[in-house]
Amino acid sequence: MEWQRLISDRRLGLEEWHDENAQMRSDFQRDYDRMIFSSPFRRMQNKTQVFPLPGSVFVHNRLTHSLEVSTVGRSLSREVLLRLSGKVAPAEERLLQHIPDIVATACLCHDLGNPPFGHSGEKTISTWFSEGSGKSLQEDLSQQQWSDFINFEGNANSFRLLTHQFVGRRKGGYAMTYSTLGTLVKYPWTSFHAGIKGKFGFFQSEEEAYRKVAAHLGIPEISTGVFARHPLVYLMEAADDICYQIMDIEDSHRLNILSMETAAGLLLNFFEKERQEKLRRGMSYLDDPNERISYLRSNVIGVLVEKCADAFVENLPEIMSGEYVSPLVDLIPDPVKKAYKECSDMAYKKIYCAPDVVDVDLAGNRIISYLLDVLMDAVIHPEKNYSQLLLTRMPKQYDFFSPSLYGKIQAVLDHVSGMTDVYALDLFRKLNGHSLPAV
Predict the structure, then answer these.
(1) What tens digit of pLDDT does each residue of 106-160 get?
(2) What are 223's strand-pairing partners?
(3) CB 416 within 8 A of CB 372
(4) 3-state secondary structure of 18
(5) Residue 104: other Cβ atoms inside 10 A
């Protein structure tokens, strides 16, 4: 792969309007601004990240997480540019200056397609098809279509949100640049490979769009339906890995799931003994326990950014050749790598199984499953009286009257996955008669 092709400001769906003239903002900066002002991005403020949406204690939601990932992605990209400075041709070095904007925008977009109620929302949708009421639909769908649904993936849904021409929208969806779209797709293969690789990057309905992006950027197809990663995917992935792992430790301390001593110990383990002593002295000037953990967290993110930048540059030849390289956080040296794993182990042992987290998973499972039951029945049997009433209430941008069953199902999933936690709960109550308009 070559940077001259990988960094392209052509926009999907607006290729004929491409303007080579320099402007105040680059097209990559326009991508970033476009996302900040978009409805899907704003909706993330009411979507659970891990912990229940905040009451008296503020923890991360999808929006704050995405903003932080974007910030770290930009910093990580700049560290990479520093390491590459003077090592590439001047023309290529000028082109690489766009990398921070491309990565920052892809980071903003990486969670757009995730449904409400945290990571369990994806699992609930998948199992509605594989274990629940949706199982009866299998015989009327192709193998590829069925694979899309039983492996429902927020990453693939993010790509769909940005590229699909919803009702009333322009061709190309949000008409993002090819480079931003290429950087967004963390798992550039179809759902047929989800069983082996765990996740996938685009639904059958968006495969043609991804193939168009890949062809323009010079991303090779390694085997049928499996593409090499855009090199900048590694930076976006690393920014996400850094943020969710470290911020989950900070949030769990704020919620008293982890003690001050445990959280501080996990974060201090990222450093050699001499640096640990300096950090302890820095902590001693802070009386607020939350500020102490925040102080350590900022230092940990700094060292992770540096080490991931090193790993990216060291493995750049393999990355550019299209070889699959492990996530950058797996390539950093000890003690940083060991400390990161200790945080991950603690998260699975104490955080993700915490009662409040499991309660959200349980409630989300019931709410999403019920909404899928009702909405799927309405689009498949629109002649029913209740279906007609319900469909009049549904957003017009989703194609509930698609001529294909696959399209109808996707319209329902577009609607449900786009809901905030609060909206989904409110609709659940209304459809069950537990909430009525004021009379």
Answers:
(1) 999 999 999 998 888 999 999 999 999 999 999 999 999 999 999 999 999 999 9
(2) 226
(3) yes
(4) coil
(5) 29
